[in-house]
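Entry 14. Ran structure prediction on the chain below.
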Amino acid sequence: MKKLPHVSALKVLLNSKRILKNPLPFHHENFEKLGDTFRISILGEGKVLFSRDADLVKQVLQKKHRYYSKSKLQTKDLAKYIGYGLLTSEGEHWRAHRRMIQPAFHVKKLKGLFSIMRNAIVAELERIVPSTEQDVFALMGDLAFQVVAKSLFSSNDIREPMSRLQHITEENQKMLIREMRQPYFKWWYKASGEIGEHMDMAETGRDILNDLIEERLSSGKEEHDLLDMLLNATYEDGAKMPRRQLIDEVLILFTAGHETTANALAFTLYFMSKDEELQRKLFEEISSLEKDNYTWEDLSKLSLTTSCIKEAMRLYPPAYFIDRVAIEDNEIDGLHMKKGTLVLLSIFELHRHKDFWENPTEYIPDRFVAMNMKEASNYYYPFGAGPRMCVGNAFANYEMVMVMVEIIKKYHISTKMSRVEINPMISLKPKEVKLNFVLR
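Output, structure tokens:
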């Protein structure tokens, strides 16, 4: 480990302003100069291992996953704002809830949500004003949030409370990013009361969800949505989830469930707007479906549509870094990983690695049409990998294809933007994506 190239704490400090704004260029410079794996010293965190090495990523996430757990970035820093659910928990707590929640996201269960999801998508897309420039990232953020909300609370008129919850999750994320990128200022964030204020906001978010759950329970109705599935889920001993735990799981579904989808859709639509020929091909593929009567099964036939989304998530993976900490001494390709080693896996860099991708910085959806996805799974991780892979990946994939179908069959899209400026938060976001929608 000591023989690895090293970035000093002083260099990190001298670059602190640009790292706070966007750390990716700084990391890219180091990867290009130092190689696929290096160490970096961060004040308040010690030495951290950064890697875009495909085999190391695979070993940590899959083959040797038992030697690694999520780091305190998730299990403490993020958890204090969104609770201790699948995304932020580890050990037996995580295993028990993964076994309990995963059946709710099985494709057979998701098929039952098809109408709920599609109705929510169509309703949100009514907000498009034809022949007017709109920020599609904001639109997709609201859309994805409402799809999760309706999939959980199908029978409720929940736009107003969901709007408040969305604001809370976004503000708390901004606070967490400041804590993560400037750990040497954590003492000030605590002393000034900023962290306390955001913790209070998190509790307000939980109160909103608790009221909706109480309303469902008091109604005595079975809605066959995600909330019903979670309410009926049981541990191995037959016990149901405690209320606090249920709220944490629902809060995490909102936070993680809408962001990845909104980000990927915004980037995908941007690339569509730049390519007239690709839009034509997409329209032809989507026109093969019955206009208003396509089914859940029909979505899997749209290979080009799916490839457009995959390629956008290659260039701009929502989870652009994955953090792990070694819980036991272990060895990967001759590299001794001591217990306690913090590892940051750069999915952003791996998805653009010239060893695996031809013309890695170009948007080429066709590469996924012909690609062997089993082979690509060694260096393509849009939803993570291994036992901790995102439980909602199928939900997100089907949702994104449905959104593309509803937009492309109705609109031709264009943009004046020459590039998209990115905004790396907990997930990789665009700052804005201004598009023009013209009715076909």
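The longest strand covers residues 37-42. Will compare against last week's run tomorrow.
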